[in-house]
Amino acid sequence: MERPERLIVDGRRLDGRRPDELRPLQIKAGVLKRADGSAYVELGKNKVLVAVYGPKEMHPRHLQQSDVAVLRCRYNMAPFSVEERKRPGPDRRSIEISKVVREALEPVLFLHLYPRAAIDVFIEILQADAGTRTTGITAAAVALADAGIPMRDLVAGISVGKADGTVLLDLMKEEDQWGEADMPIAVMPRRKLVTLLQMDGNFTPDEFRQALDLAFKGIERVYEAQKRALREKYVPASEEER
Amino acid sequence: MERPERLIVDGRRLDGRRPDELRPLQIKAGVLKRADGSAYVELGKNKVLVAVYGPKEMHPRHLQQSDVAVLRCRYNMAPFSVEERKRPGPDRRSIEISKVVREALEPVLFLHLYPRAAIDVFIEILQADAGTRTTGITAAAVALADAGIPMRDLVAGISVGKADGTVLLDLMKEEDQWGEADMPIAVMPRRKLVTLLQMDGNFTPDEFRQALDLAFKGIERVYEAQKRALREKYVPASEEER
Amino acid sequence: MERPERLIVDGRRLDGRRPDELRPLQIKAGVLKRADGSAYVELGKNKVLVAVYGPKEMHPRHLQQSDVAVLRCRYNMAPFSVEERKRPGPDRRSIEISKVVREALEPVLFLHLYPRAAIDVFIEILQADAGTRTTGITAAAVALADAGIPMRDLVAGISVGKADGTVLLDLMKEEDQWGEADMPIAVMPRRKLVTLLQMDGNFTPDEFRQALDLAFKGIERVYEAQKRALREKYVPASEEER
Amino acid sequence: MKEMVSSVKRDYIVNLASQGKRLDGRTLDQLREIEVRRGVIGTAQGSALVKLGNTQVMVGVKIEHGEPFPDTPTSGILVVNAELLPLASPLFEPGPPNEDAIELARVVDRTIRESQAIDLEKLCIKEGEDVWAVFIDIYVLDHDGNLIDSSVMASVAALHDIKPPKDPEWTLPTFPIRRKPVAVTVAKVNGVLMVDAGLEEENVMDARLTISTLEDGTICAMQKGGSGFLERREIEEAYELARKCGEEIRKKL
Amino acid sequence: MKEMVSSVKRDYIVNLASQGKRLDGRTLDQLREIEVRRGVIGTAQGSALVKLGNTQVMVGVKIEHGEPFPDTPTSGILVVNAELLPLASPLFEPGPPNEDAIELARVVDRTIRESQAIDLEKLCIKEGEDVWAVFIDIYVLDHDGNLIDSSVMASVAALHDIKPPKDPEWTLPTFPIRRKPVAVTVAKVNGVLMVDAGLEEENVMDARLTISTLEDGTICAMQKGGSGFLERREIEEAYELARKCGEEIRKKL
Amino acid sequence: MKEMVSSVKRDYIVNLASQGKRLDGRTLDQLREIEVRRGVIGTAQGSALVKLGNTQVMVGVKIEHGEPFPDTPTSGILVVNAELLPLASPLFEPGPPNEDAIELARVVDRTIRESQAIDLEKLCIKEGEDVWAVFIDIYVLDHDGNLIDSSVMASVAALHDIKPPKDPEWTLPTFPIRRKPVAVTVAKVNGVLMVDAGLEEENVMDARLTISTLEDGTICAMQKGGSGFLERREIEEAYELARKCGEEIRKKL
Questions:
Q1: Is F179 within the bounds of a domain?
Q2: Count of the separate structural domains present in chain D
Q3: Could you report the predicted ipTM of this complex, rounded to two decimals?
Q4: Measured distance CA(C111)–CA(C149) in Å, rounded
């Protein structure tokens, strides 16, 4: 595909969004039978499924921690999730993402409640269109809640970036590919604490501050959608109307 | 190599056999010193060596089963056993075959007699010419008996199939490659219980029944050869003549 | 690079050495902070760094030996240590060398003093120019001494070989590549006991004896340099002058 | 890989079976509810999500350029891969496909390949050099039993969903798929045969026999599994079940 | 992978930090001593050994022919690999790079790539077929904390040390390196921010934020690490520290 | 990898050795019975089965097209691989070759390569592009000691058994094999040297020295193994044993 001459025309992005607009976001909790908790999220063309297992006994035993539960995360892309078929199995990118996603979720969990246990979070990217790691975090937080695991707060993720010199919320694939900067961020929304922050490209100090502003705005909306999804699962519709 | 115009001419196959005829079959028990039991089988151009170790302590320990012995099978082709050198190590085909071979042997073993133990069956294909998995099973049963492991029955294997529209016993390489169907089967011969059954190609329901008939005929002959091999090893020739 | 017509002209080698001359040799003990012992050796263009850890608890536990410590050696080449970038990770050559290096060091250690323990020797070839395994042994012995591990003797390594029909001490890259024989050797210098001996190429029985003679001469000089390096580290310069 | 089952549960299932009954009220020859959704993944040329009771399997098919095998220089390539994702079961672990995943992929492969459902000869671009490679990736999302049958369903549905790739070298009007092979796995529980075993039934079965058939009743693949044995009579009964239930499944695809 | 720390040691470091002090007497915004040695490896096109306090990192750069990626047919290739050698720490084990080594390599990669320090477009030999591949191999020799910053330093120093390869196809006068990106990692210890954490400080930190900047203060890469969180205020403070210390480091390169 | 030996057994073997005797009645410089069967595998170009006492090693040689190494564009390729099959010993485990298997393959490789037994220069088809690759696969079937010597025997016998491949590009009348290098491994048991150690002797030996020689006594490869040491005198004695027994072995090949 060729890069279009401009990614932003008259203040509108290729898909018609304004710079501070999110793509359509749908979250559903409790979509799998076997998993202890699960969630399915669509953000634009991203389709992400997450399952949580645990707290459960840690195997192999020598990885048990005597004072805390161990959180394990696996971010994985389906072979058919991208334009060119991806070979199954972890690559360097997915290993790094699995690590930062784990570190983005750890701050909200009470891991000391479950010494010697393991909590597993499996993130499957079924269809990818930029922002998969942050969408994965958004889904993982809902799946953890669905599994009934006590949490200090949810974690919501979103990406901000820059294209054609404009700071943008929630990059789509074309903006990620041809834009000038990409900054995934995850936040505990209640107290606005940042648990994941990565960036590549270029930001002036001023653009960086704008990007943070925009990110916190986007996080609010993601958080609302997360809460709605959990309410939909646990509060019967009729009861909610009262 | 080019496919010959016909695989069966005047009711005779490329090597002169009739449709219901086996290739020459030779079985020898107890051919290795270190192994607890062993057997060597030649079926036509197939050359197969099998060793059995066990029952023995299972390592690693976390794979022990508290109520039964674990049977482990490894089907492996020598790099020089086929036309084009095969890279050493397991591939998807050999992993699948190892599984179905194990499931073909399990029904005759009294695994509950040896809790926490392991029984290892190593099948090496030294020269391959179609029908290696069933020849491997035939050899494995003899090797298990040679190891003195109690068995309900032997297991005998053979392949049936179809070429030029004719249902055939014991496919050779050319018939396997250019024929229309291949059906490996393993049977506990005394009560005619099927422990392995696979098939690919195409069979009408009627051909399928013919194939089963032919298979059971072939199994009889394989069984006779197995018993002869075990007798040759354990009954001194002179004694047998009495 | 093309092979020069002659590797020895007027009794002098490409770098001006006589057949029985060593390349410049520098040894430094205790160059790393984290390691329990370490050494850095330059022999000609070879640059080798060795770290020793241990005796320490052996993990994984099932590899513990109830009566002795286990010595583990890893010989590894940096990707940038050779002309064409070497892919990281062990290859067959480095696995074999790790084994013979371990067997070259074991005779000087009192492994029965540390049952259930492990001693790790990590040999990193930072720049390679023939003779890396023997240089690695030379460095490893100093690093073991630096770690305070009791030893019967040091072990000194050197390579001898043949080029243009002349038996040579301490082959450099060009002599190794285009010469007729290469024989790495490691010796416990005090009693002249050989702990590593390998050879490839061709030696008449007479050349072989010459090569051994030359090797023992070279080992003496390597041993002197090893002792000097250990003295430099442990005896303050001022004190030594007294 | 079987899950542990309590002996009470085992006895209960076995008892029911001997009376021709099952845990979820089905008859022995009754399938669970089947839901097939096509076109679920936009980045795949073809895709489908199959729900068979609570079992969920997604399949995505990618079509790319590939080099033909030397012995079939004019034939397209078919690659089937199955991932038993750790999301789908507490017993599935991350890592390369184990023997269960490999067996699953290979049985699906044989069912599709041997049925000649895909006309691979049409997928040649340049003899001996360039052909179309068809990658079928089976993604098991939720495991409640009978992965073989549901994976064959999802694969066949995804193949029939294929939109040709946007590539100047693709010249066919449509993807050359022409048949609907269907696998039916018959489980043997204490001597009783039943179709479409749920997970708890699978955990107590002695053996299983998968029979893949075509519209006309032709068998194109079989696979026995499990540590038990089958009598000849049972094999012939299994074929009848496979034929009957296969027709039912085929209507959904 | 964190090492075990006694609670006494932890309390001591935390206490010092709350008073703006550190174990080795530094201030919170003070780097350890930096020593940069270039040209240490003759078999590499460029190399450098960096000592940051007791931490030692060697980098060797090799330049070889390579095939360009299909989507960037005129662009050279950059490959960054990091080895946490078992020589460097009792916690590093032989084997393929683990998640820590991969993260390290990828943060260095992004810092160099996104800064456009190397003009990759100049490294094309023949469009779509042959380009120069630049291999940066990071060799961690002694681990006393702050591997990211020291690895970026050693990589940038090695890139600036490059002697073009002796190859008839190399036609540039020099290696096309034009900038000096610098990474500064800020550690958060019990709410206190400090730069260039030593190993013992790293072992008790809650989180870290690496910010890579260029001469003009532009940010080209960031990476948060650790199981803790950061407030927005802390992120902005970290940037100021990164800018200030970055300039100091850049002078050494 | 050594097997456990009881101290009684150890003492017995050591005692015998000190009297110049051995478990199976041989003298110290006596080989076990050697049986060499050629042409045992029809799918290989050359093959041999060697029995050395109860030790059994099979070797199959395959000849295929290959690409030459850049630095030897006119030279054929020799690849030696050894598999310590789990059939052969309770201590051999399935999996990729461990250090023992790799050492075995590499000692055989050096013995054959350095003896120039194969004229690799004759195996060039098209300079820099296409040469013959000779794959020697060593298959250890039954391990009763002295795998190196038996593997060299079987490899050399298999090479001398080669029927040229049926390939239009093969133009030589015969396979260019011209020598018979032979390896003799001398074991040192409590200071006593003996040839062709059986498994039980290997399990108590301090060290071993393998010396590969040619017809004229030239040494083409050596390898010391084991955790012990050798005196110079022992090395020279080992050479004499290698030369003497080598001649004996060569007659069988």
A1: yes
A2: 1
A3: 0.96
A4: 10
The pTM score is: 0.97
Give C88-140 pLDDT, tens digit per residue: 999 999 999 999 999 999 999 999 999 999 999 999 999 999 999 999 999 99
Any CB–CB contact under 8 A between F164 and chain C?
no
Token code pair at residue B145: 């008996």
Output b/e per residue, F191-225; b: 16+ Cβ within 10 A: ebbbbbbbbbbbbbbbbbbbbbbbeeebbbbbbbb
In a domain, E67, yes or no: yes
- Please give the share of chain A, as a percent, with pLDDT higher than 90: 93
Sort out which chain B residues have CB atoms less than 8 A from D221's CB and list them: 199-200
Between the CA atoms of E50, E56, E57 and E60, what dihedral angle is there, to the nearest 10 degrees? 70
Cβ neighbours of E81 in C, within 8 Å: 79, 88
CATH number at residue E135: 3.30.230.70
In a domain, F7, yes or no: no
Which of D54, D86, D143 comes nearest A74 by C-beta? D86
Average pLDDT, stretch C35-44? 98
**pLDDT of D2:** 64
With CA atoms as reference, report the closest residue to F106 among D104, A30, B172, C95: C95
Q: Over chain D, what HEC string results?
A: CCCCCCHHHHHHHHHHHHCCCCCCCCCCCCCCCEEEEECCCCCCCEEEEEEECCEEEEEEEEEEEECCCCCCCCCCEEEEEEEECCCCCCCCCCCCCCHHHHHHHHHHHHHHHHCCCECHHHHEEECCCEEEEEEEEEEEEECCCCHHHHHHHHHHHHHHCCCCCCCCCCCCCCCCECCCCEEEEEEEECCEEEECCCHHHHCCCCEEEEEEECCCCCEEEEEEECCCCECHHHHHHHHHHHHHHHHHHHHHC
Is F102 a residue whose pLDDT tops 50?
Answer: yes
- Residues of chain C found within 8 Å of residue F138, distances taken between Cβ atoms: none
Please name the member of B201, B208, B216 whose beta carbon is closest to the beta carbon of D114: B201
F239 close to C208: Cβ distance less than 8 angstroms: yes
**pLDDT grade for F20, boundaries at 50, 70 and 90:** very high
Distance between the two ends of chain F, CA-based, in angstroms?
29
Give exposure, E142-168, as e/b (b: 16+ Cβ within 10 Å). bbbbbbbbbbbbbbbbbbbbbeeeeee
Strand partners, F118: F177
Domain that holds residue D208: 29-252
pLDDT average per 10 residues of sequence, chain E (253 residues): 80 96 97 98 98 98 97 96 98 97 98 97 96 98 98 98 95 95 98 98 97 98 98 98 98 95
Of E43, E86, E139, Cβ closest to residue C83: E43
Domain ranges for chain A: 17-237
The whole-number average pLDDT for the span B33-50 is 98
Q: Which of E181, E183, E185 is nearest to E226 (CA)?
A: E185
Give residue A6's pLDDT.
95
E162 assigned to some structural domain: yes
Mind listing the pLDDT tens digit for each residue in A115-164? 999 999 999 999 999 999 999 999 999 999 999 999 999 999 999 999 99
CATH code matching the domain that covers A17-237, chosen among 3.40.50.11270, 3.40.920.10, 3.30.230.70, 3.40.50.150: 3.30.230.70
E221 and A199 in contact by Cβ < 8 A? yes
